[in-house]
Amino acid sequence: MKHTISILVENKFGVLSRVAGLFSGRGYNIESISVGETIDSQISVMTIVTSGDDFIVEQINKQLNKLIDVIRVTDLFETDHVEREMILIKVAPKKEDRVEVLRLCEIFRGRVVDSSPKTFTLEVTGNESKITAFIELMKPMGVKEFTRSGKIAMAREGINKK
Amino acid sequence: MKMTGAQIIVEALKREGVRHIFGYPGGVVLNIFDTLYDAKDIDLILTRHEQGAVHMADGYARSTGQVGVALVTSGPGATNTVTGLATAAMDSIPIVVFTGQVPTGLIGNDAFQEADIVGITRPCTKYNYLVKDVKDLAYTIKEAFYIASTGRPGPVVIDLPKDVTSSQANFVWPDEISIRSYNPTLEGNKWMIAKAAEEILKSKKPVIVAGGGIIASGASVELLELAELTQVPVTTTLMGIGGFPSTHKLSLGMPGMHGTFYANKSIQNADLLVAIGMRFDDRVTGKLDAFAPNAKIIHIDIDPTSIRKNVDVDVPIVGDSKKVLVVLNQIIKESEKHQWEEIRHSWLRQIEEWKKEHPMTYTFDEDIIKPQYVIEQLYEITEGKAIITTEVGQNQMWAAQYYKYDYPRTFLSSGGLGTMGYGFPAAIGAQMANPDKIVVDIAGDGSIQMNIQELATAVINKLPVKVMILNNGYLGMVRQWQELFFNERYSKTLLETDKIPDFVKVAEAYGAVGLRATKPSEVGDVIREALKTKAPVFMDFKVYWKEKVYPMVPAGASLDEMLFEETNKKDKKKLKADKIIMT
Ligand SMILES: Cc1ncc(C[n+]2csc(CCOP(=O)(O)OP(=O)(O)O)c2C)c(N)n1
Ligand SMILES: [Mg+2]
Predict the structure, then answer these.
(1) pTM of this prediction?
(2) Mean pLDDT of the region B70-93
(3) Binding-face residues of B in 137-196 toward A, CB within 8 A
């Protein structure tokens, strides 16, 4: 089962390696990880997507909590939440496909962030499946490269637990 | 008033009540050593290896419950502490290790004697720091001691760049430490404890499995009360030894791979396990699927990650063992009175039968010293009052099996990491903290050579530790596995310690006393002579090379599949031949 875990940590030197080291040292997998600031400059938030059976995920949550610099761990699996990912994708379509690329980008509510005579660089945000779908659609158009951000997530307000 | 970083360190250590530091100097810690040169209240003990320093701090901590302290230089000095840190981390021992570091401006430049020790020690410490500003130093030290000694204890490293310890700041000592992201749960959930009480009262065949948490939290009195109140037998894991009196009639000894037959039988037949401050290590459980198949499990531990890590639990209680047991005992005392003697009668009688079926025994021999006999003699002569440390291997298991421990903090052994070379420096640390006690390292001829240089530390500091070398000429435990599972192919386990080194001469070369026994009749005298000696002593016992540790549950087998000594079945000729090879 895939779990998105949101971790509030002290914004201190070395925290990322403590968390990453926990995962590698204990053989847990990380599918994606993103780190950023929060409203409080002393606190950072990490969003980790991981997977494992119930026992392993329980251990991951407990082990994260045990790290001295971890303030709070929320396994969003149990909570209704929104999650977003972003992709920057550079495509080099044939002349006759250029319009189609722009049309698809619009359907996915993406934006063109750079263009050259031969390429477009597009930006799309959304949940994981939307991003994956967009990549699939772009593939026949001649994808040169892309970068996916890690996932970021947040619990919905005022809605009960799943 | 401004103080240098080095002065701040010394002042902070005084405030923490530190009396002894085990250390080894080098370039970037010269100024700290210089400051300690004048510190009247703190004794800085020069070891002969940084690994020794950390094990000494560990032995100091295990024997007292106070935080042990070591101080080493950067680079190789710091990397030499890693085994000591990992040993302490695995066994939850509170120590603080100060490592020197190159000046902040040079960090990351591959400077001379630079090592990323915060990176290297991250997985084998509870926490670690790189102090970048002298203003943070006092607070960091107080916090480090707090983290090391609270919750589930563990080692903490403070890395000290040279410019930080030489620049100045005001000494500001915090009144208390509070860390928003670190709040160990001490009080167990009341409802869960009540449920545990109910399960204990209901059970017909309960067993308490007590681990190192009993000793860490000082809960042996409460454990004894619980056991006696409800007449529940107690088995203590290697780390729990001393947490419950071995001589008590409810004691089952140690469980697991080299546990007693009756401890393992009891676990396998129990309807309830009360696991306290232990973590279901694979050496304790054997094959997990077959472990305690009929038992409900109550698991009390301060570390939530220990619970449901290896086994599923019916009643999980996160909390400090002592605090939980106080409440549990109270509930049991207030519950309706039971005729425990009667209720437990058949279970305890069954256990008595198991004890008769396979007691902890070995075959005594008139001509050749059996290692178990040496330990039994030590027990008798010291009347069970010594602090015992162990190395790792057969010596460790026999020390656990054949000495009896009635008091906590008297059995110091590297359980989780299994570090050969631990016992001797740990004994020195324990002797430093307990000058009036007899401290004996029960050692193997292999292990003792891993930190033998610390004999200089013991002699020079007049620490009269005794080392009992069970000299079987082999890396015995490995040899045992080779004999049982690798067709007696003794690949590189022969130490030739019958010749090299001569332990008596080694002792003498260091200015210590060396004694030797080659016959069973000499054993008692050697021990008595050693105990009379007010100096460190190496006792070299030439023991039977082929003696094995039994009972034994082979790795990966269930606790039901125990092997026992097979001497009776073996023909006399073979036995005799084995004996001759040895001498
Ligand atoms: C540092 C270290 N290296 C290797 C081992 C693996 N090991 C476990 S027991 C043992 C043999 C110990 O020999 P000795 O000290 O003579 O003890 P004996 O088993 O003979 O009593 C070895 C090599 C270990 N535990 N620690
Ligand atoms: Mg040996």
Answers:
(1) 0.96
(2) 98
(3) 147, 179-182
